[in-house]
């Protein structure tokens, strides 16, 4: 169905009503239920002037509703669509309904990393060599007023980031990305936009940008000695008064930091990673906050400022362009000065609209170039590798994932307290159909080994904790009475208290060593918790107090699967690099995948000391 997005007023209202997914359940258009005022107003005679702030965040290189690794339209179990092209349709529809001159459009960061489209123009045909970044082109076409930096903006180094900045028609903001020596912001900290009000004085809107301070850890290699990242609350407390002194009537913060105060990856940060609510509570004179980084949907939340007692509006529009935030600030004049009388927010769903035709046409060539890239040959493999049997026997496919993860973490430990510790790695058999063919290998072949968007961390576990971890992993298997031959379904996906419908494959972890072999048996004649036997490293039994760095994905480290010890373990590596891309990069850099050089049988299913035979 084709929707005339910017056609009649009736069509626009129908479209926006269909798209509304948050707030009180209705989109608060002018005149709709829940609205404070109708029309534009001028702030006098009890008729507020409505300022609308539109927001996206965590676009992560998504322009089209497309999954490049599957070479097909994006789909998920919740029916979400992705991409700035769809978000742009919603943005334009709201502007047409409200009046573009009463709308401000912002982004809360993480723009240039996350898809092959973004990677291609950072590494394959880099913008530093003269190409144009698709995210810059599409965001310029949308007409953003400003965007905050996200932590992933630093992934490709400052040269790439500065080039991206130079290609934008709007400012990149970050008040807490500061020079290593002087402490002065190295990007614009804020901008003030003037919004005209018919028959009255204009509204001056101060827009402040902030990024999570975790950049200092995650992209240490790119920023150490050059850029520091003081706390969000601390820098907001410095710059909000500066905005007010510069004449801002209203202050909106675009912050790449989650709403719920936490450090999701256990990093030893001097400041909270997620501090948006804390900032709203502690720093006076903030009127609204566009939240990012946490990849959650918050249509509307209010936080009371501890000093003024005023309610501060927060909203986060999920990620990848799945939603667009719409924040309504109804302004009145008090003693000749604009202030917020009431505010509300909702989110609009991108799956309700078609892609914006202008963006779709503008980026079509880049899109097709990247489709060709993901289907291109990046290396070769000396022997075919399949993950089909990985859930019940040691395979080269899982050994390859563990190899890449362990090598990456080991390299990242250089010069740190973790340098010199033996490195282990865990991987789960996510995708039974994954296979790397003998001969030519494409980007899509490699990506099939790792189908999730997990990032890589390194944590420290003791030998006793490693055994505990493997014991829980072994709960994936059903018991057997003794030696013999068993079909795979008779021994896998055990029903447990944690998994009453059967333990999923992604909660079975296989562990391997890097510089020496980690070996163990899983005895399925024993009770859960007593199945790991012969656990050894480099041919010797593992001591309970020995220390290991374990390469682990962020889902598992943050508690996914409820594995023991990992959430409280010291984090010694976290660059927030996607494991899937790391595997692609490894093949690209090395050219040849040679399974005999890294694959070995390090774990077995046994009954006592007798290996079991498992059939598909």
UniProtKB/TrEMBL annotation:
Pfam family, one: Metallophos
InterPro entries in the record: 5'-Nucleotdase_C, 5'-Nucleotdase_C_sf, 5_nucleotidase/apyrase, Calcineurin-like_PHP, CpdB_N, Metallo-depent_PP-like, TAT_signal
Keywords carried by this UniProt record: Hydrolase, Metal-binding, Nucleotide-binding, Signal
Domain named Calcineurin-like phosphoesterase: residues: 52-296
Residue intervals of the 5'-Nucleotidase C-terminal domain: 377-566
Similarity annotation: Belongs to the 5'-nucleotidase family.
Protein name, as recorded: 5'-nucleotidase C-terminal domain-containing protein
Species in which this protein is naturally found: Intrasporangium calvum
Lineage, highest ranks first: Bacteria, Bacillati, Actinomycetota, Actinomycetes, Micrococcales
């Amino acid at each position: 169905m084709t929707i005339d997005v910017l056609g009649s007023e009736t069509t626009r209202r129908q479209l926006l009503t269909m798209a509304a997914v948050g707030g009180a359940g209705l989109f608060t258009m002018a005149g709709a239920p829940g609205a404070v005022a109708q029309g534009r107003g001028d702030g006098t005679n009890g008729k507020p002037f409505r300022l609308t702030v539109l927001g996206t965040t965590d676009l992560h290189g998504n322009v089209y509703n497309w999954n490049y690794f599957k070479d097909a339209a994006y789909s998920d179990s919740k029916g979400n669509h992705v991409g700035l092209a769809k978000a742009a349709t919603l943005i334009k529809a709201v502007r047409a309904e409200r009046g573009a001159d009463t709308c401000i459009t912002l982004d809360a960061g993480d723009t240039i990393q996350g898809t092959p489209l973004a990677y291609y123009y950072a590494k394959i045909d880099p913008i530093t060599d003269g190409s144009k970044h698709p995210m810059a082109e599409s965001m310029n076409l949308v007409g953003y007023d400003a965007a905050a930096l996200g932590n992933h903006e630093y992934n490709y180094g400052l040269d790439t980031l500065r080039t991206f900045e130079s290609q934008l028609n709007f400012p990149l903001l970050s008040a807490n990305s500061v020079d290593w020596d002087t402490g002065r912001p190295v990007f614009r900290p804020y901008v003030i936009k003037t919004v005209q009000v018919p028959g009255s004085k204009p509204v001056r809107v101060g827009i402040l940008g902030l990024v999570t301070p975790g950049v200092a850890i995650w992209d240490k290699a790119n920023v150490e000695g050059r850029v520091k990242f003081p706390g969000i609350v601390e820098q907001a407390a410095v710059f909000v008064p500066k905005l007010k002194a510069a004449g801002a009537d209203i202050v909106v913060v675009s912050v790449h930091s989650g709403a719920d105060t936490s450090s999701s990856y256990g990093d030893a940060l001097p400041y909270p990673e997620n501090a948006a609510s804390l900032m709203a509570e502690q720093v006076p004179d903030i009127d609204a906050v566009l939240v990012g980084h946490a990849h959650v949907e918050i249509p509307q939340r209010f936080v009371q400022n501890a000093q003024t007692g005023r309610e501060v509006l927060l909203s986060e529009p999920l990620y990848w362009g799945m939603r667009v935030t719409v924040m309504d600030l109804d302004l009145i004049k008090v003693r000749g000065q604009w202030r917020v009388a009431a505010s509300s927010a909702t989110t609009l769903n991108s799956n309700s609209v078609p892609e914006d035709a202008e963006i779709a046409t503008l980026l079509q060539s880049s899109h097709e170039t990247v489709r060709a890239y993901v289907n291109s040959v990046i290396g070769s493999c000396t022997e075919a590798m399949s993950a089909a049997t990985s859930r019940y026997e040691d395979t080269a496919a899982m050994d390859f994932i563990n190899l890449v993860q362990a090598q990456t973490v080991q390299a990242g430990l250089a010069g740190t307290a973790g340098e010199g510790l033996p490195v282990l790695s865990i991987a789960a058999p996510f995708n039974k159909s994954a296979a790397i063919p003998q001969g030519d290998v494409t980007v899509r072949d490699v990506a099939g080994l790792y189908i999730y968007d997990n990032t890589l961390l390194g944590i420290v576990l003791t030998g006793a904790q490693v055994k505990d971890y493997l014991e829980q992993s072994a709960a994936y298997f059903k018991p057997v009475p003794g030696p013999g031959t068993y079909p795979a379904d008779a021994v896998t996906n055990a029903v447990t208290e944690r998994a009453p419908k059967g333990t999923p494959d992604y909660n079975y972890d296989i562990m391997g060593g890097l510089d020496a072999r980690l070996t163990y048996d899983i005895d399925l004649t024993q009770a859960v918790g007593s199945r790991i036997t012969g656990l050894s490293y480099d041919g010797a039994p593992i001591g309970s107090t020995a220390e290991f760095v374990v390469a682990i994905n962020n889902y598992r480290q943050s508690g996914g699967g409820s594995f023991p010890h990992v959430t409280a373990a010291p984090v010694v590596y976290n660059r927030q690099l996607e494991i899937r891309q790391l595997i692609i990069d490894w093949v690209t850099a090395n050219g040849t995948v040679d399974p005999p050089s890294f694959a070995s049988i390090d774990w077995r299913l046994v009954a006592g000391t007798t290996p079991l035979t498992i059939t598909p």
